[in-house]
Design goal:
This protein has helices spanning 12-19, 32-38, 55-60, 79-84, 97-113, 115-123, 149-160, 174-179, 187-193, 213-216, 236-244, 285-303; strands at 3-6, 23-26, 44-47, 66-69, 88-90, 141-145, 164-168, 182-184, 196-199, 224-227, 250-253, 274-276. The chain is α/β, with parallel strands linked by helices. It binds nicotinamide-adenine-dinucleotide and D-malate (MLT). This is D-3-phosphoglycerate dehydrogenase.
Length: 311
C-alpha cells in the first residue's frame, strides 16, 4: 500500500479520502531536518502553508510522486525542484476563495468600526462609546488590486455595500472589470483615490513591496489598507511608520513577510489603527473541507495511476 505523509493540520475529510488507497501518517510540527529524514518512506506529501518543501526535502523524497498543497499558494514548495524530479505539485485553486474574500471584508468593516479594540475595552470593564466613533464604507471608494477569484468576490460584495469600485489588474480586461462594477485604472490613480485598498494578487518579484514608503505617501490620510493576499507585498516597516505618522488611517493584515510574525515586528506595537490576524483567510470549516477534499482526491488519483492536474 502506498504511504502518504500529512505534515500540516488538514480536515478529516481529506484523511478519509486518502485512507481509501494509502496508509496515512499525520505528523505535524516536524522540523525541516525531521521532515527530510522521514520523507524517503513516502509516496505523497500533503501540506498547508506551515511545511516548507525545500530542495533538500525533495532530494530526500526518493519515492515521492506528488505533493498536495491544501490551499492556493504553492510558494512554500520549491516547484522547479519538484518538477525536475518528476514530482507533481497540486493545489486547490478555488476551495478557499469565499473564506479569504469574507475575511478581507470582515477586516475592512472591523477596521472602520474599531471592533477589536472596542471589544477589548468592554471586556476590560469600560463603557466608552465616544472613543470608538468609526467611519462608514457606504459611498466610499474601494481599490481592488488583483481582480481574480478572491478580488472579484470582494468587489461583488463591496458593491452591494454601496461602495464605488476601482480595480488594478494588468491581466484583466476592462470589460471583465466593468461587469463586476469596477473601473479599471492604473495603480498610481488607485493609490491616490481609494479610501480602502484591498490586495488580492500573488507575491512575485514584481509585486514585492508594491506598497512602500513612496506609494504610501501618495495615499490620502484617510486611506485604510487590507492585505489578505501574501506577506511581502507591503513593506511592513514603511507601513508601521506611515501609520504612526498618520500618513494613512489604518491597515488590517492577515499575512506577513515572515510567518509567524516576529515578536519584535513594529506592526505589533501599533494601536487601534492596525488589526493583525494570524493568516486566517482560509480558516473556515467550509474552506478547510473544500481544500482537503480537492487535494486528497488529486493525490488519490495519482496514487491510483490516473492523470493529475498540476498547480
Ligand atoms: P487569482 O489567481 O484568482 O487572482 C490573482 C489576480 O492577481 C489575477 O487576476 C492576476 O491577474 C492578478 N495579478 C497578478 N499580478 C498582478 C499585479 N502585478 N498587479 C495586480 N494584479 C495582479 O488568485 P486568488 O485565488 O484570488 O488569490 C489571491 C491571493 O490571495 C493570492 O496571493 C493567494 O495566495 C492569496 N490567498 C490568501 C489566503 C489567506 O489565507 N490569507 C487564502 C487564499 C488565497
Ligand atoms: C492559501 O494560499 O491557500 C492560503 O494562504 C491559505 C492557507 O495557507 O491555508
Amino acid at each position: 500500500m502506498p504511504k502518504v505523509l500529512v505534515s500540516d493540520p488538514i480536515d478529516q475529510a481529506g484523511i478519509d479520502i486518502l485512507s481509501q488507497v494509502a496508509q496515512v501518517d499525520v505528523q505535524t510540527k516536524l522540523s525541516p531536518d525531521e521532515l527530510a529524514n522521514i520523507i524517503g518512506d513516502y509516496d505523497a506529501l500533503m501540506i498547508r502553508s506551515g511545511t516548507k518543501v525545500t530542495q533538500a526535502v525533495i532530494d530526500a523524497g526518493q519515492n515521492l510522486k506528488i505533493i498536495g498543497r491544501a490551499g492556493v499558494g504553492v510558494d512554500n514548495v520549491d516547484v522547479p525542484a519538484a518538477t525536475r524530479r518528476g514530482i507533481v505539485v497540486v493545489n486547490s485553486p478555488e476551495g478557499n476563495t469565499i473564506a479569504a474574500a469574507e475575511h478581507a471584508l470582515a477586516m475592512m468593516l472591523s477596521l472602520s468600526r474599531y471592533i477589536p479594540v472596542a471589544d477589548q475595552s468592554v471586556k476590560a470593564g469600560e463603557w466608552n462609546r465616544k472613543a470608538f466613533t468609526g467611519v462608514e464604507v457606504y459611498k466610499k471608494t474601494l481599490g481592488v488590486v488583483g481582480l481574480g477569484k478572491i478580488g472579484s468576490h470582494v468587489a461583488t460584495v463591496a458593491r452591494a455595500l454601496g461602495m464605488k469600485l476601482l480595480a488594478y489588474d494588468p491581466f484583466i480586461s476592462a470589460d471583465r472589470a466593468e461587469k463586476l462594477g469596477c473601473r479599471l485604472v492604473e495603480l498610481d490613480l488607485l493609490f491616490r483615490e481609494a479610501d480602502y485598498i484591498t490586495l488580492h494578487l500573488p507575491k512575485t518579484p514584481e509585486t514585492a513591496n508594491l506598497i512602500n514608503a513612496k506609494t504610501l505617501a501618495t495615499m490620502k490620510p484617510t486611506t485604510r489598507i487590507i492585505n489578505c493576499a501574501r506577506g511581502g507585498i507591503i513593506d511592513e516597516v514603511a507601513l508601521a511608520d506611515a501609520l504612526s505618522k498618520d500618513v494613512i488611517a489604518g491597515a488590517a493584515l492577515d499575512v506577513y513577510a515572515e510567518e509567524p510574525l516576529g515578536p519584535d515586528s513594529p506592526l505589533r506595537s501599533l494601536d487601534r489603527k492596525a488589526i493583525l490576524t494570524p493568516h486566517l483567510g482560509a480558516s473556515t470549516e467550509e474552506a478547510q473541507i473544500n481544500v482537503a477534499t480537492d487535494v486528497a482526491e488529486q493525490i488519490r488519483d495519482v496514487l491510483l495511476g490516473l492523470p493529475a492536474k498540476s498547480a
